[in-house]
User: Fold these one by one.
Assistant:
Number 1:
Amino acid sequence: MSCRSNASGACGLAGILLAVLVAAPWGMPKASASGASADTKEMAAESSDIQHGGAVYGTYCAVCHQMDGRGLGGTLAGDFVGDSSRLAKSDAELLEVIRDGRIGTVGAMPPWSQSLSEQEMVDVLAFVRATFQAELAD
Ligand code: HEC
């Protein structure tokens, strides 16, 4: 919003992520299909949880995509902010890449279906869109 200069990188993002990290401790049980029955209290799987997506992003994705979503200018990973073609794709297309990975033009995107639940992949994509796509709309 008021954060026009990208020179400093993350702008308000670091603060958001910090809040998310505090709000979503890792100890939280994964809402996976196995035996979890109905007592997964707050994790209703009907919509995306952007906050939890932010925690997932910080843990699994930021090492390559970086907290500012630029993947070191697209050298480490897909640059969500600078390469608008990335997030212009549909949710279905992007979820497929997150699930199964892809050898792309700037390196390999690892598959996540073994480490993340379907809900977590939906959440992290929602976070990526909410955080980095918003920066595109100026
Ligand atoms: C080991 C580094 C690495 C990690 C970790 C990583 N990615 Fe990626 N990601 C990449 C690379 C490299 C690409 C670009 C692939 C290409 O050129 O098409 C990419 C591309 C993407 C794309 C864009 C796909 C497209 O079609 O343009 C999305 C979305 C994405 N990653 C999401 C994630 C999410 C979510 C996570 C965390 C769960 C994650 N990535 C973790 C390396 C990584």
Note: DSSP finds six helices and two strands in the chain.
Number 2:
Amino acid sequence: MTNKIISTNREWDLVIYGATGDAGSAIAMYVANNFDTYEKKNKKNDSTSRFRWAIAGRNERKLLQLRSRIIVGRLKPSSNDEIGIIIADSSSIDDMSNMAKSTRLVISAVGPYTTLGESIYSACAMNGTHYVDITGEVDWVYSMREKYSKKAKETGSTLCSFAGYDCVPCDITMHLARSVLLASSASSSSHTANQKDDASTTSTIHFTSAETVTQVNGGAMPKGTIRTMISKLPEGAAFLKKLIRYAGGGSSGGSDSGGNTRGKCSKTTRSLIQWLLPRWSSEFGAFTLPHFMGWCNIPVIHNSYCSSVAKTTEEEEGGGDSNSMIIDCIYHDRVAVPFSQGCFGTGYGLLQTLIVYTILLIGTPLFLCFQIFVAFVPSTAVILLKLFDSLQYSGNTQQNQKQLEDSTVEVYTYATSSEGTKAVVHMFVNGDPGIKCTAMLAAETSFSMLSLEDKNKLPKGRIGSPSMIVGDELVKRLQNEETMSGCCTLSVISVVDNKNQNTTKDYIESSSKKDS
Ligand SMILES: NC(=O)c1ccc[n+]([C@@H]2O[C@H](COP(=O)([O-])OP(=O)(O)OC[C@H]3O[C@@H](n4cnc5c(N)ncnc54)[C@H](OP(=O)(O)O)[C@@H]3O)[C@@H](O)[C@H]2O)c1
């Protein structure tokens, strides 16, 4: 494993590529309002070491307009108004390579990734540049990982995908649940070891149940998400196959350099089948439907948690923590029927579930027929895309800012370990999923990566989801009340250790001792 340090002398710390799009412009605005939370923590606030960032895209006029909008519209006045502009088109290898060489990290919001994403991904892998994207295209990430993992290891580039609403809320709440379950296991095994006077405290435990229930209130569909859905229409079965293979690790190994790939794929397949069914989520206490991003979250979670805890560079090189916790169960990714929590007795939620499934029963065969038609006549997808583009649709306009800001995302993750300990983690985000929440999560993932690199703790050459790359650092940032200022909260609601009857109080006491 290489431990190459990306030069801090590069012109930019961060470049937002695709900054003129719905998601890209929201990321740029978030960065403008919040880069000081990274800068304050990591750098001396003098002119030579201040945060240097740029917005990039193919259209100079739009970029100039965006820069003016950011400077006028940002919430906090800043002395750092120097936002660079980079003109780069994804079809130009030179543009991509020059941009990658000029910065420590690129956030790419240019999609659909399957058609437009590879040139910047490849340029980052080749030039040892760190990379973050907000894709949900698991099949594309699977192909990129197969193609570039060797190169990334050679150059030290760390490539982090799924850093938006797909898949951070599930990924990071599962990460926090895993941390507390491991902490609880370690404390009970050291207790047992003390009793037996045995020095060995390492253990391997696994998840025996894992479920995420999401409640989304409001929002608007980003333009790129609709374009991605249309462009995926011709792929059909090949797409499904890659979803499942991604979870298994693929030939490059992904997060998992060994292990039972077939078993993992079968758990993912079973999770995807169960995802399609209605469910009474007993821990949450409500009827739940398949979460609309479950097809993406399920393989990503199975991949992120199919091997041991994401290790830091030192651990990878020097052994490090040998505790591990893998997912060896069905992962449920659900969305709650609104206002149905605690209504099992009255059956409230059941009626809505039946209505949704009736629509699905009628709609699915029609959709499948259409999909088969598009598979045989792929130009249909191209015509649909042109039609859609002619509508001048945008999900992130000046007019709908209030609607986006008034939306909320709330996530509960329930996980049980093979030792019988149960953890409940809660995350709340102020803002709609596709634009505001995605912007905050992509920017915070990037700040976490830069911050770990400053401390020489970023795992180099790794490809994966945010939890695999910056899990603990991202949790720390999202839990910081001062810097998040109400925009996001992330907390452990309860940890109940069935054997020792320790509770949340014990966990909180032990973790605050650890922090101090
Ligand atoms: N994870 C999530 O929850 C989440 C949320 C939102 C979006 N996404 C994904 O993120 C991607 C972007 O979404 P969006 O809604 O922001 O899309 P969008 O509004 O259509 O923006 C696309 C961006 O890509 C740029 N672009 C297109 N072709 C290009 C080329 N050849 N070279 C350089 N730049 C090019 C566009 O530039 P112009 O302005 O010049 O056209 C624009 O900046 C999509 O794949 C979407 O699925 C994910």
Note: Residues 18, 20-24, 57-59, 62, 89-91, 109-113, 116, 134-136, 164-166, 222-225, 227-228, 434, 438 surround NAP (CB under 6 Å).
